[in-house]
Specification:
Helix content: 25-40%
CATH superfamily of the largest domain: ATPase, nucleotide binding domain
Structural class: alpha/beta
Bound molecules: zinc ion
Largest sheet: 5 strands, mixed
Number of domains: 2
Strand order of the largest sheet: 3-2-1-4-7
CATH topology of the largest domain: Nucleotidyltransferase, domain 5
CATH class of the largest domain: Alpha Beta
Radius of gyration: 19 Å
Number of strands: 11
CATH architecture of the largest domain: 2-Layer Sandwich
Shape: globular
Strand content: 15-25%
Length: 298
C-alpha cells in the first residue's frame, strides 16, 4: 500500500496525506483561515517553499516511510522546474522540487518529490477516485486561469487553456498576454478585466435577469469552452472530459453540450462524455499524491 503527500497550490495551498488513493485525515491549508483571501501572488518563492514544507512536516506520519510527495501548481512544469506560471509569476524558473527537497532534508524528511501542473493533478485525482487510471481523462479547471489537465501525463505542454478560440484581435485578456485565448474569455481575472464595472458573479446573475450584454457574454463563455473541447477532440480523439474549478457554478452543461454538438460533426469522434464536478480541493490533492507515487514506481 502506497503512502504519499499531495500538495496543491492555486489561490491557496492545500495538502493531504494519501494512502492507497484515499485521503487520510484532515487537509492542511494555507492560509489556515479560509476567509483570509490574500492569495499567493505576493508571497516570494522562498516563503512559499517554507509554507509548503510546513504543511508536509505536519502531515508526515510519525512512523513509516513516505513513498512520494507530489506538488501541483498552475503553470508549465518540466523536470521539477516551473518553466512559466502566468498566474503565479514569481515561480517562473523556480527549482521548486530542489528547494522543497533541501528544506525537508534539514527537517529529516526524505522522499522523492514530483512536480505537476495543477490541472494534470486534478485529472489524475479524477482517474484515481473513479477507477479510471487505465483510461485517458481530460479535465478543464475554471478558475483565475483556465487549466487543462490530462491523465496519464504525456510529453508536451498541453496548455489547453490557451487554445485559440477567436480571431478577434481585440481579445487580449489572457493572463499570458496571448491574443484570442480561451482563458482570455473564461478566466476569472480576464472576466474582471472585460467587465470593469461588475464581478463575474454579477455578469452571470445579470444575464439571467435579461441584461443583453451579459447574456451575450455568457453564450460566448460557453461557446469558448465548447471550442476548446472540440479542438482537443479533433486532435486527440473523444473520451472523458470533466469540468471543475471555483467557477464551476457558472457552467450550464446543457448549453455546452449543444454548442459542442455544433462543432464536432465527424461521427467517429462524437463518442465523448462531459461531466461537471463540484470544486473540491481533495481531488487534486489525491491526484498529486497518487501520480507522484505512480511516477516513483515506474
Ligand atoms: Zn493565454
Amino acid at each position: 500500500m502506497g503512502r504519499s503527500i499531495g500538495v496543491v497550490m492555486t489561490n491557496d495551498i492545500t495538502a493531504g496525506l494519501i494512502e492507497d488513493r484515499r485521503l487520510i485525515g484532515e487537509l492542511r491549508r494555507y492560509p489556515e483561515d479560509p476567509d483570509e483571501h490574500h492569495g499567493l501572488v505576493d508571497l516570494p518563492t522562498d516563503q512559499l517553499v517554507e509554507v509548503i514544507c510546513d504543511r508536509i512536516t505536519a502531515l508526515k506520519p510519525a512512523s513509516g516511510e513516505l513513498d512520494a510527495i507530489g506538488i501541483a501548481l498552475p503553470g508549465i512544469v518540466r523536470a521539477g522546474i516551473v518553466e512559466d506560471s502566468p498566474n503565479l509569476p514569481q515561480l517562473k524558473g523556480a527549482k521548486i522540487s530542489q528547494k522543497v527537497e533541501a528544506t525537508l532534508h534539514t527537517r529529516g524528511i526524505r522522499a522523492p518529490i514530483a512536480l505537476f501542473n495543477d490541472a494534470d493533478a486534478a485529472a489524475a485525482g479524477l482517474a484515481a477516485t473513479r477507477n479510471q487510471l487505465d483510461k485517458v481523462v481530460r479535465v478543464w479547471t475554471l478558475g483565475n486561469g483556465i487549466g487543462f489537465g490530462r491523465y496519464p501525463d504525456a510529453p508536451g505542454p498541453f496548455e489547453g487553456g490557451h487554445t485559440i478560440v477567436t480571431l478577434d484581435p481585440k481579445e487580449t485578456f489572457c493572463g499570458c498576454g496571448g491574443v484570442g485565448h480561451l482563458e482570455g474569455i473564461m478566466g476569472h481575472r480576464a472576466m474582471r478585466l472585460r467587465f470593469m464595472d461588475m464581478e463575474p458573479e454579477e455578469i452571470f446573475e445579470n444575464a439571467k435577469q435579461g441584461d443583453q450584454r451579459c447574456a451575450d457574454f455568457v453564450k460566448r463563455w460557453h461557446r469558448a469552452l465548447a471550442a476548446g473541447t472540440a479542438t482537443s477532440i479533433h486532435l486527440e480523439g473523444p473520451g472523458r472530459f470533466y469540468i471543475t474549478g471555483i467557477n464551476i457554478g457558472f457552467l450550464d452543461l446543457f448549453l455546452l453540450k449543444q454548442y459542442l454538438w455544433d462543432m464536432v460533426k465527424m461521427s467517429p469522434i462524437q463518442s465523448y462524455t462531459l461531466e461537471s464536478i463540484p470544486e473540491t480541493p481533495e481531488i487534486a490533492v489525491i491526484g498529486a499524491g497518487t501520480a507522484a507515487e505512480i511516477e516513483q514506481k515506474r
